[in-house]
Fold these 2 entries.
Entry 1:
Amino acid sequence: MGSGYSMKNLTIQNVSKTYFDPYAGANVTAVHDISLKVNQGEFISIVGPSGCGKTTLLNMIAGFLPISGGSITIDDKPIKGPGADRGVVFQTFALFPWKTVGENVGFGPRMRGLPKKECDQIALEFLSLVGLEHVAQKYPNELSGGMQQRVGVVRALANNPDVLLMDEPFASVDAQTRMTLQEELTKIWQARRPTILFITHDVPESVFLADRVVVLSKGRVLEDMPIHLQRPRVWDQLIEDDTFKALSSQVLSKVRSA
Amino acid sequence: MSHRLYSAFKFAIPLLVLLLIWEFSVQFFQVNARVFPSIESVYRAGLEAVHDGSIFNHVAASLGRVAVGTLLAVLVSIPLGVAMGLNPIVSDFLSPLFRFFSVLAGIAWIPIATLWFGYGFGAITFVIFNAVFFVVTYNTLLGVASIPMPLRNAAASLGANGWTLLTQVILPGALPNIVTGIRTGLGFAWRGLIAAEMIATNVGLGYMLFLARDFYKTEVIVLGMIIIGLIWLAIDRLILAPVERATIERWGLVRRA
Amino acid sequence: MMILLKAWSYYLRIAAKFPVVQTILPFIPLVIAWALVTEYEVFPRAFLPGPVDVINAFGTLTYKGVLTQYLEDSVVRLAVGASVGVAIGIPLGLLIGLSDRVREAVWPILLFFQAIGDIAWLPILLVWFGFSLTTMTLIIVYTVLFPIVLNTSLGVRSVSTDLHRAALSLGASKLRVVWEVVLPGALPNIMTGLRNGLGYGWRALIATEIIVGTSGIGFMMFDARRAGSVVEILLGMVVLGTLWYVVDSWVLAPIERATGKRWGLVTQ
């Protein structure tokens, strides 16, 4: 099955974000100056302490927040508001409670105007990536947290976005499930090679998943670290791996020094 | 303090705009006074009513009836509601009855009330009493019944007996529901009052409106409507809502039905 | 003591299987008490007729077709008024919920007019439209409007931002987000608004019929009052209460609970 993704590179150039905080009664700068280039098919993790601006950055790339300065372009075309070219996976899962799992996953294709039958087919196809074809008729609140987020991930993937933005997607899930989801995510990524931007505050998670780890601090890029770990990545192996441990400590110390 | 002033100001602006539109439309479309009055005529009618004291009579009559009816109802329904609520069997059994009678709130009682009490104060107060009684009893019942058993057991194990248990645990625990019940009941009562006054008496705001209609005195009608609106806004927003919010916030951890 | 408890648990089990029982049973002692009170003439018969008299009247009036006609009149008026109220109220509620600016502009006006109350509009409506169906329908529309607008806007605002954003990032246009996400998301609240609105509308209808009606249940009660015939007044009250109670408990409340539950929003 082909990846179906065209060659699109995401360029974030000197982006900044300032807004007026009514409680503080003053302007607050969440993002000072961030430049980042994400190449087609890369898996980037963005880590940082709370308040470093990573969620704001993601919201700007997704088009939920306007940019104060700089530019965000996909293949030199500036982004305009939210769109199907940038899929999002939310920490709160954000599945539509009144739609079945299948209808949720088929939502994107339906917005594109595809006939219902095709949407259902696409939904089943993507649900099978995570072994959930059998719950297509169920409603989100009948599923566990881990299953819901799997649905969230394939719902975004089913729309073939140029970039997949993931906002601390596994933070609401218990530790065991989180490790399983992380492994599943890397497997899917290896098979289909979407471009992924993964926000997290969990350092080992960021190293486990990514090709590059970007450390943010106080609205700026502190470090852009390539991760040369073999794929496929499996927790049982990596948890004792020296390179993994070294990389994790490196990133952790950078985050803590922020 | 200034924040509240500011939001009160923001609240008033759309209403002021409405006043402007009103005056403009009446002048521009040369609206017949018998169809809709101008602001000036309403103002003059107001002055006149203040002068001859009629407005005070009407407002006093209306408020008096509401006050008496509500007070009586509350005095009866809270103890009753508490007594019923304490026993889960009784509260479960009697709930449908009270829900049924809450529906008949106020207005449907007017015909039979005038038959039993004749026209005037008695009948109207009875209507108000009903409007408040059933709702407050039902809400009190719910409030008491929804106090978690562990809470009551804890109090009892700390040595609280009858009266102390009642005043220190039961009443405070049910208070949010009671206040909500009073607020809802008062709303029914106010509406029922106006309706009852239209047909069952010869003094009061409802009567004032209905009489003015007979003479096509739209300025008196509009005056009355504005007064009714202002009184209810004052009662509900300045007294009831803050009390409701305060009790809920204070007792925020108690489950609400 | 044991016997009572056993009887009670028996009752609970039957009630669990047939909820109808739990709703109807409490009324039986009430009716019995009522019958006893009239039997012993605690109040003069002219003031308080007994249940048997009321049932007789029910039979006679239904047979003459009067009761059914009045009932139909009342219900139709409510349906018409409610439909108009809903048709106006839901879009208005949507607008207020979606746009902060509209909300700030309209909210104080809504609150003030809600404070005036439905019946207070009757005199001026009578001046404009006379004793006509229009007057009655307008009162009902007015009454139904507020709970629907308020609850709809509440429901709209309660749809989480993430759901909005999810739909947008899946390629939905702003309009489609309203249709696919906001409306369904607000549905439980809309149902609550509908239920409350119908309740208030029903009461307002009866009030209007009592004051200025020429037919309908409210009119029947008022007319009976004029003729001094208490039986029909009581009959009217019983019919009113029962009708609303039935519709509310067995139709509206379950629908409201079902939507809330399905949406995973209601925990009661």
Entry 2:
Amino acid sequence: MFTQNFIDDMGKSPPPPLDKEWIASRREAVKHYLWKKWNLNGNDLDDVLQETMVAALQSFANYEGRNNAEPATYLIGIAKNVVQTHFRRRDRHQHRRAPLEIAESIGVLFRDEIEAQELAKCLQEKISKLPKKYVQVLKLIYYQDYKERDAAAEMGIPVDKLYSLKSDALKRLRKLCKKDARFRP
Amino acid sequence: MSCTYQDRLDYIADYVRGELPESEQETFETHYLGCDECLNDIRLMEKATLAMHHYGGTVFAPKTTWLDRLNIWWDELPLSPQWRTAIPSLATYVLLIGILSAGYYWFNSSLNKNGGHFYGDQPGGMVPEHLEKTFVKLEHFDWAQPPASTTESALFNRLAAIQPVYQARNYRLAADRLAAVVADFPQSPEAHLFLGVSQLHLDHTNAATKNLKKVLQMRPDYAPAQWHLAHSYLRQNRFDDARQQLTALIKQKDSQFSALAEQCLKEINRQNK
């Protein structure tokens, strides 16, 4: 259903024009994709990102954009090719499987570990403003790694109710964090 | 361009936790590569998720107030159980004494400000310095030779009996006795006058005003009553009434009080009251 909504929505607005400026503006998004999807870090991440951007800028004139395709499809195709070439060279292929570690996020999400710790304190302030039920849901799922079904059993509520609580908690948390400059990119 | 994708936040939360099916994940990745709004939310959610997962002890710790910190500090103090009981009791005792002292100080200062009267008639107001002279003048009222209007010998005897008390400035006793005289001789302006003046000394301005007004109802041109009524008004900050009374007194050209009234009126006008 999510995918259907997503595809429907995509169909409503025309895709942005694929040009050098647009490609350059997506650098951070590509970086996040390579880091998140392909588990790249440090120099590997920088190298693959650089190669992807150069390849995208060199060959965008050949992109035909069939079937009203998003320019991001072109960009993600280039990124996949570059990253696969990179892995062939290194003789390994690695999708992210394990949950993220703080060390892996340095240079992508945080400057250093101190910044991550400060953000945690800041998050405590925000979370302390949420109702207790929301805090409990977030704690069970995001700290104690409960699956939604187990968290619902722990709290003694139906799973549907838990999903709804989780969704509301995330919305409230996002709203609180958005107001704070420390959470902005 | 604003992202129109529905349930975006739930979707992002699942993506960040790696819980989206592979095909949906790829579709979403294609989307956020072109959508700043989603990219920003993904980054925010990644940060929050990481912080909650790795620093959950901090993030979900209940926020400590100054009272909690005080409690922790108290628990960590190296004290014997006897001192642990004694110190709070002593502190409570000291606090109680402090509160009582402050209350006493406040009450006392209020009492001083109001000239020793906390309730009842509130004196206050402007009292010209030369007013004290008028009391002296009244004290020199010729008790032995009362005005011709004081015809009743019984009344004269009663007033003469009160004279020493009044002149000794024991106004409370004088007022009590004069009140009895007024009850027996309600038509005596002198009895009302001395009662009014005694009450004025006691700062019972409302009662004094009432008695002095009665005197003027009986004898509208009775200068001492006019003067003291003006004085009573001044103490109540009723400046217009006092001014009116003093003006009437000046017009009378009384040898004793008119000059005083003029002086007093000038003083009121000078102070722009």
